[in-house]
TrEMBL record:
It holds the Pfam family Glyoxalase. InterPro entries: Glyas_Bleomycin-R_OHBP_Dase (IPR029068), Glyas_Fos-R_dOase_dom (IPR004360), VOC_core (IPR037523). This is VOC family protein. It comes from Acanthopleuribacter pedis. PANTHER family: GLYOXALASE/BLEOMYCIN RESISTANCE PROTEIN/DIOXYGENASE, GLYOXALASE_BLEOMYCIN RESISTANCE PROTEIN_DIOXYGENASE.
């Protein structure tokens, strides 16, 4: 059996501003942007460069309850984890693109990690995994 998480729904205020943030500022790929009805509902998915499985579904909040959850879908804790092969490169590029980091890079046993905030306030870990220990 083979399974994987194909998508995570992320509540947004506006499709186009979310696309601008994830595609233009973070460098994600716009995978799909399809109109679903004549009332402005769209199916919008984005993915980090090189990602083949998991995508973010940018879902415009439909009512007051959903709008109240924008930016705090994880209760103020880190919500999403973006793994990179070069944290220094991506950290510097994101800083140039005005991404707000709330924790600077730090080395942990599992890798180097920095925490940034998306345009709505959700927290993300940017992680470069530690190199596996070489046994002699």
């Amino acid at each position: 059996m083979s399974q994987y998480v194909s998508g995570i729904r992320l509540l947004v205020q506006d499709y186009d501003e979310a696309i601008d943030f994830y595609v233009d500022r973070l460098g994600f790929t716009l995978v799909e942007d399809t109109a679903l009805d004549d009332q402005g509902k769209r199916w919008v998915t984005v993915a980090p460069p090189g990602s083949r499985e998991t995508r973010l579904l940018l879902a415009k909040a439909a009512d007051r309850d959903e709008r109240g959850m924008i930016g705090c879908q994880s209760g103020g804790r880190v919500f999403l984890f973006l793994t990179t092969d070069n944290l220094k490169r991506d950290y510097e590029r994101y800083k140039r693109n005005d991404i707000v980091f709330v924790r600077e890079p730090v080395v942990q046993p599992y890798g180097t990690v920095a925490v940034f905030r998306d345009l709505y306030g959700n927290l993300w870990d940017l992680i470069q995994p530690a190199e596996p220990a070489v046994s002699g």
